[in-house]
Amino acid sequence: MIKHFFRAITGNIVSLVGTLLILVSLLLIAVLLFMQGVGFEGGAYLGIVTFVLLPMAFLFGLALVPIGLWWRKRTDAKLAAQGQKTGHLPIFDLNQERTRGVLIGLVALAVPLVRAGRRPDLQGRPLHGLDEFCGMACHKVMEPEYTAFQRSPHARVGCAGCHVGPGAEWFVKAKISGSWQLIAVAFDLYPRPIPTPVHSLRPANGTCEQCHWPTKFVGERLKVRTHYAEDEANTEVKTALMVKVGGKQAGQSQGIHWHVDPNHQVRYRADPTREIMYEVELTDLAEGGAKTLFKGAEPAPEGTEWRTMDCVDCHNRASHIYRSPEFEVELALEEGRIDRSLPYIRREGLRIITAKEYASHAEARDGIAAAVKAFYAQSYPDLAGTPAVEQAGKALGDAYAWNNFPHMKVKWNTYPNHVGHQESPGCFRCHDNKHKTDDGAKIGKKCSTCHNIVAEEESDSQLWQELGLQEAPPEPAASLLDRCVIGCQVGDLCGTDLFRLLGHLGALGAGTVLVFLHRLGKFFHGHAGNGRIVVVTRAVVSMTVDAALFRQRFARGNIRGMNRGGKQGQGSQHRRQQRRVHRASPPVGRAALSVRPGSARGQPAQLLPLPDHNIVRRNNS
Question: What is the pTM of this model?
């Protein structure tokens, strides 16, 4: 029976080809699936071969076998009617020169073709293993995603690492899904733009958590964002947020990563875009699985499915980030791709790239560059032809081309990012004070839950200078009063600049007299022995100089040396703060005042009483 069946399906050339296709396809599919099961990653080409080309060859072989049997039966009937001998397979006679030539030609063509298919790229990997194939084989369809992917933090993570993950189960699912995508591309059946989110994407615990550890305690992180004002100088300002990433610490979760604690299972019902949350359910597994249901303002439509929240519900653009026009212009200014010294470039750059839509990237680059030149030709003719204007036009054209794709109908705001709440509802999809339980409990909308604002659009801040994010402004040259030898405080206690000047001149004169007396004492010490005049002179000079130096050091914040030649140190800054406080304060008699500088966040300076000279003298005696 089996022998007769095998003879039938291989008795003619058509059935023989079909049988070979069936056997080879099944064998290769089994081998490739086994290789995938043991961890071999062949890339996108291998998936197409395994789940598209080989199954198609198998089905084609199944069709050829019955066609060959029908053709053989019909041919045999004709040959029998004519009295001829039946035979359906060709005879290859290598003794014939023509047969040998055909065989040698086939071998000569097969060897380079096989070698070309296995040719490695510059990094030593086969061509079918490159991530570029995912983004460039279907260039028009995947151009937006591949362009965004190349600029993302995950640019060095393979496509399959996030879209497939380890294991054979999701590999098979991804390749079956990819088979339909291949058909859609071949017959132009794909939507424009590609809808998001991807509902068939593998859960994050099988992809993201292969590298990231969601329960790790991260704590608070300072995030500083640079902005530029829309003035002529494009003034740089910075905003700082203390982001409470949080995590699990001492068995308790806090901060933003509270949502990924294994003890907190969050589920929700939303519309297909996952931007409107109808219901949110919290299950506290640490408390025996107690459930809390929060209902939104709108009831959930029929057929809406529940989804368990994971990383990609907030980090929905982790590898394919489309940036806003404001972000792109400010990023180009910060990176130096646009010269910040160009007047109004922040304002005009944002206006130009959002003014109109273009039919192609080439048209956009030309139009944006021309608009930049036109503005400076009209407003600043001296700058119109400079390299800085040329470079600004190119950088703005890049910003447009990296986020807008006319063929796929992708624009600036097509794919919002749910991290935060500025470019999309983001956190406020659930934290909106509208989702309530039956008892009235709400999902809060308190900003301090996730972050604290340290500074908002500040410039020339002492905080930025201490963090090294901005250079301190140059201080003015020291005046005569700042370079006073004694540091007398008579002027500080006076109410007018005239008495202030006279006080400092008197201090200078006193210093000159002290120096003279000191030199006189040394003279007598060397020529008159230990006479009473020498002892009295040295005692007077020593006490006066000690008191003056103490007042000088205490008032200047213990600075070292003098600030001469316009050099400013901490002491000069301390004296300026001291003078500001004394100008604003009424005279306080003999009690001199010293100033303790405020903190970096602008706390008021504190006034400290200056100790009496007699007390200081006793402590130093």
Answer: 0.61
